[in-house]
Design a protein that fits this description.
Elements (H helix, E strand, L loop, with lengths): L19 E3 L6 E3 L1 E4 L10 H13 L4 E3 L10 H14 L7 E6 L14 H15 L4 E6 L8 H13 L3 E7 L3 H13 L4 E7 L6 H4 L1 H9 L2 E5 L20 H4 L10 H16 L4 H10 L4 E6 L4 H8 L9 H11 L1
Parallel strand pairs: 3-4, 3-10, 4-5, 5-6, 6-7, 7-8, 8-9, 9-10
Antiparallel strand pairs: 1-2
Helix pairs in contact: 1-2, 1-11, 2-3, 3-4, 4-5, 5-7, 9-12
Bound molecules: NADP nicotinamide-adenine-dinucleotide phosphate.
């Protein structure tokens, strides 16, 4: 049982433990490592564990918590869990926290619960605020580009979310590079510059780093925040000795077991050797590899235990990879 009365650690901003990186050309600094609540904070997860992780994160300098309307499972329940933790523990610290949510993928039945319409985005934001017991979020994202909605309708909904005070900043996630460029221009022209591009990036998924998304964000003065930095757990020691019963791959929802080929795990073992030489865990190497790119503002990790989170947070202040480390990693991934 964790302590009922929460007082944040006095040394949570102690020099060096959690570096803060500037988000594009904005005034915002984000922690090098942020916490995402996609999978392990829903109504099937123990509340006490979720609470412990949020508190541990904040105590160690994690100011940014990333959510979306449909995180769970079930949909909406990660925001509800977060709302309960806001209510029980975090309320006095709201102004020290940077909280995001999103809408774009399927959320509720019928034509208004998915996509990029103004109707969906703005009603979903209201619902997210209600579930999280918040008056505003710090970033409201369009979770994906919707080719069936006029781009201006989606983007104007972000502008109006900010103008209404229900979001402080606008962001886009998973938008193709060309549409992202149009989004940056649209939003800037309305004095609501895009704060963040959120995209999947990790050692095994480098399309957005090699393609236009990362550089496009940098050119537009937006930050880039990387999700699934551990490739959902593949880039850790989680699967090096089989598939644990409590793992994401065992649940067969978003991480297909077929992905875990001997060939891939062989590469992860070789990467883990580099990690060991650096005095890091495999997960830490995967995070350090991303943070070596100065265009990446922050890395959003997931975790199913406080021990995993603690392991990941230690990467925040680790030295970047050397050019020689980078070359060896490239050889393994080639
Ligand atoms: N914008 C989008 O479309 C989008 C999409 C996906 C994610 N995201 C955001 O990114 C966040 C992170 O995504 P993700 O959960 O896929 O990230 P991830 O960090 O790549 O994977 C997290 C999983 O890896 C395992 N893990 C984490 N740390 C570990 C460690 N130190 N040692 C061993 N295993 C470890 C855990 O798996 P087990 O559960 O098996 O223990 C954990 O659930 C999400 O919560 C969300 O906020 C955004």
């Amino acid at each position: 049982m964790i302590n009922e009365v929460y007082a944040a650690a006095a040394d949570r901003y102690a020099a060096g433990s959690m570096p803060y990186r500037r988000c594009g050309r904005s005034g915002i600094l984000l922690p090098a490592v942020s916490l995402g609540l996609w999978q392990n904070f829903g109504d099937t997860a123990p509340l006490e564990r979720s609470r412990e992780m949020v508190r541990y994160a904040f105590d160690h300098g994690v100011t940014h918590f990333d959510l979306a309307n449909n995180y769970g499972p079930s949909y909406g329940s990660a925001e509800e869990t977060f709302g309960r933790i806001m209510h029980s523990d975090m309320r006095p610290y709201r102004h020290e926290m940077f909280i995001s949510t999103k809408a774009g993928y399927d959320m509720w039945p019928g034509p208004y619960g998915v996509g990029g319409s103004r109707k969906y985005l703005l009603t979903s934001l209201e619902e997210s605020l209600r579930r999280m017991h918040l008056d505003y979020v710090d970033v409201f994202y369009s979770h994906r580009f919707d080719p069936d909605t006029p781009i201006g309708e989606t983007l104007q909904a972000l502008v109006d979310a900010v103008r209404s005070g229900k979001a402080l900043y606008a962001g886009i996630s998973n938008w193709p590079a060309a549409e992202a460029a149009r989004a940056y221009a649209y939003l800037a022209a309305r004095d609501v510059p895009c704060l963040l591009y959120q995209g999947r990036a990790n050692m095994l998924d480098r399309d957005r780093m090699a393609g236009g998304e990362l550089q496009g964000a940098a050119d537009a003065g937006a930050g880039f925040i990387a999700f699934s930095p551990l490739a959902q757990g593949v880039l850790t020691d989680r699967y090096l000795h089989g598939i644990p019963a409590d793992s994401r791959a065992a649940q067969r929802r978003t991480l297909p077991q077929e992905r875990l080929s001997d060939e891939l795990l062989g590469r992860v073992r070789r990467l883990a050797d580099i990690a060991a030489e650096r005095g890091q865990s495999m997960a830490q190497l995967a995070i350090s590899w991303l943070l070596t790119d100065v265009r990446i503002t922050s890395v959003i990790v997931g975790a199913s235990s406080t021990a995993q989170l603690a392991d990941n947070l230690r990467a925040a202040s680790a030295p970047p990879l050397t050019p020689e480390d980078m070359r060896r990693v490239e050889d393994i991934l080639a």
